[in-house]
Design goal:
CATH superfamily: Single-stranded right-handed beta-helix, Pectin lyase-like
Mean pLDDT: 90
Distance between the termini: 113 Å
Strand content: 35-45%
CATH topology: Pectate Lyase C-like
Structural class: mainly beta
Number of strands: 44
Radius of gyration: 33 Å
Number of helices: 2
Shape: elongated
CATH architecture: 3 Solenoid
Number of domains: 1
């Protein structure tokens, strides 16, 4: 059996001969002096670990791309944050930007200063509160950017409630492809959100989603095309309530609002119309209102008006429209306007004060498969007046003063008022029959 202990002893001796005895020296065990300071402040840690630029006072101008963050609650007697560059992220970090409440023109919580031919893009603004400026956000020529998770309130207008360009939560002007999401916009003197397309500078393909827009003095959401375009915008999954005037207003003043969508929204308790599409002297065509609840408004639930312009080819479908102070739905083509080729289909329209559905000077529209019941003023379920070639098909009207009053120039399925089991022959079996009880 080998002597492993002897082998190890011999190896250690050999190693000692080659390396020498100095390798075993330990040196002094006494420390050279007191240790230096190694702690850092929180600000120093952020400076070393956070590549973002802090914003600690207002006004603050951003002229270079990058990521910026607010260090605390900040106030200003003028502007808040001014963004002049693309590729910018501003994180409010849950803090507030607060104005002086004077509502002076040009004083914005956050302003995007793009221009025609020098648009700003790829901007993100998120996570905080903006209060007491002329407008919370004013975005000019801003494309493909995001506004998320903001609470915006208390915007004032020094010129009073008749001037629409102040007292706003968010204004997008001549801006395209932007997204406003998860925001609460309330208590502003004029409107919650305005999208404006002016002259040759459109405001198209923007999205407003999952926002609460309430308690603004005049308007909830306002899309306006003045000699320009406001097309292809989407308002979805929003609560738009208790605004002093209209809930959602599309206005075409010698311009065009085309292909916009209002989907899956709750539009309730607004002081005037719930949704108003106004052709004015332009074109408000091809828009869709779907899957929404529109109730408790002071006037008309959904109002489509030509007014010296066009309000054609729009669709109102799968909505609940109830308890509004006048009509549930009105199509109005008087005053040299057009309100033609629209579709009102598969809606539940109930307990509106005077009429469920009214078509007036409106031609070639389709009213199909709606359930209209219980007008509280004892008037009409479905009424068409001074129009031609409208189609009234497969509707049910129950408990209205007069269920149907149809113009002789319209085309309608037979009106069946029988009770009990319906006949398998005759009008009751007609595929386009309307029912009245």
């Amino acid at each position: 059996m080998k002597n492993s202990k002897g082998i190890l002893t011999g190896f250690a001796a050999t190693l000692w001969m080659f390396m020498g005895p100095d390798v075993m020296g330990q040196g002094s065990l006494t420390p050279p002096g007191a240790p230096g300071e190694t702690m850092h402040t929180l600000e120093e840690v952020y400076e070393r670990t956070d590549p973002r630029t802090p914003i600690s006072s207002l006004p603050y101008t951003i002229s270079e791309p990058g990521s910026y963050y607010v260090t605390g609650n900040l106030s200003s007697t003028g502007d808040g944050i001014i963004i002049e560059s693309s590729g910018v992220t501003v994180d409010l970090m849950g803090f507030s930007l607060t104005g002086d409440g004077a509502g002076e023109s040009g004083e914005y919580g956050i302003e995007m200063e793009g221009s025609a031919g020098n648009e700003i893009s790829d901007v993100a603004i998120k996570g905080g509160r903006i209060n007491g400026f002329n407008s919370g956000l004013y975005c000019r020529y801003m494309n493909n950017s995001r506004i998320e998770g903001l609470v915006i309130s208390g915007s004032q207008n020094e010129h009073g409630p008749n001037n629409l360009w102040g007292g706003l939560g968010i204004r997008l002007s001549s801006s395209m492809g932007n997204r406003i999401a998860h925001c609460s916009i309330s208590g502003n003197q004029i409107a919650g959100i305005i999208l404006s397309g002016m002259s040759a500078n459109p405001c198209n393909e923007n999205t407003i989603t999952d926002c609460t827009i309430s308690g603004n003095t005049a308007l909830g959401v306002y899309l306006i095309a003045t000699n320009g375009e406001c097309d292809g915008n989407t308002i979805s999954d929003c609560t738009i309530s208790n605004n002093g005037g209209k809930g959602v207003f599309l206005m075409c003043y010698q311009g065009r609002c085309k292909g916009n969508t209002i989907a899956d929204c709750s539009i309730n308790g607004n002081g005037d119309h719930g949704v108003f599409l106004d052709g004015e002297s332009g074109q408000c065509n091809g828009n869709t209102i779907t899957g929404s609840t529109i109730s408790g408004g002071g006037h008309i639930g959904v109002y489509l008006r030509g007014e010296s312009g066009q309000c054609n080819g729009n669709t109102i479908t799968d909505c609940t429209i109830s308890e509004n102070g006048d009509y549930g739905v009105m199509l109005d083509g008087r005053d040299s306007g057009q309100c033609n080729g629209n579709t009102i289909q598969d809606n539940r329209i109930s307990k509106n004060t005077t009429k469920g559905i009214r078509l007036y000077h409106a031609d070639g529209n389709r009213v199909e498969a709606n359930n209209v019941w219980g007008t509280t003023g004892g008037e009409y379920g479905i009424q068409t007046t001074t129009g031609t070639s409208n189609f009234i098909l497969k509707n049910t009207c129950v408990g209205n003063g007069t269920n149907y009053e149809l113009d002789s120039n319209d085309t309608a399925g037979p009106i069946v008022s029988a009770s009990g089991y319906l006949s398998a022959t005759g009008d009751a079996s007609h595929p386009w029959a309307n029912f009245s009880r």
